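Check the record.
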Amino acid sequence: MITKTVTVINSQGFHMRPATVFAGEMGKFKSKITLESGGRNVDGKSLMNIIAACIKCGAEVKIICEGEDEKAALDKAVSMIESGLGEE
């Protein structure tokens, strides 16, 4: 299991479009991916779970990856969040 904490930088946080893109990309990995923010742990592959977490701009998100491709999954998740999830 590996983890990293990052800050959400896109102005709208994890709303529908970036959450859809994020969950879709994470679904390509075999590892279990969990997002921890605001005291909630959610499945990083579940669009509905990510939306329900209400992760806003400026929120700190701990990404937890566990499995055979955990390093690649964590690198991709961190890259996506740190780049603003494709938004400004």
Q: What stands out?
A: Helices lie at 16-26, 47-52, 70-82. The CA atoms of residues 40 and 77 lie 18 Å apart. The mean pLDDT is 95. The chain has one domain: 2-82.
